[in-house]
Design goal:
Elements: H1 2-16, H2 20-41, E1 44-46, E2 54-59, E3 64-68, H3 87-92
Antiparallel strand pairs: 1-3, 2-3
Subcellular location: Secreted
Protein name: Beta-defensin
Organism: Bos taurus
């Protein structure tokens, strides 16, 4: 009877403590949440794939963090007009 009580006490004590796997899972979950938070700080989104106008910043969990590239409008050529008079037009006056 004493052995049964000792055995049950041992089983109860061991089963109440957190398992190593639970701690590792909790740490991994914290890392994933940290990466998602960093993604949102750079105005990104966790998606299955990034679009053409996005670049991959980091990985959230299994999917990449996609951040939109800045839109740069095309440069338009500046129209140059001659504001000076040539020597031949000055002599005609």
């Amino acid at each position: 009877m004493k052995i049964l009580c000792i055995f049950l006490t041992f089983i109860l004590t061991v089963s109440c403590g957190p398992a190593v796997l639970q701690r590792k899972t909790r740490e991994k979950t914290k890392q994933i949440e940290e990466r998602k938070r960093q993604c949102y700080l750079v105005r990104g989104a966790c998606k299955t794939s990034c679009g053409q106008w996005e670049y991959k910043y980091t990985d959230c969990d299994l999917e990449p963090c996609c951040v939109a590239r800045e839109y740069v409008p095309p440069v338009q050529p500046i129209a140059i007009t001659k504001s000076y008079k040539t020597a031949s037009t000055l002599h005609q006056m």
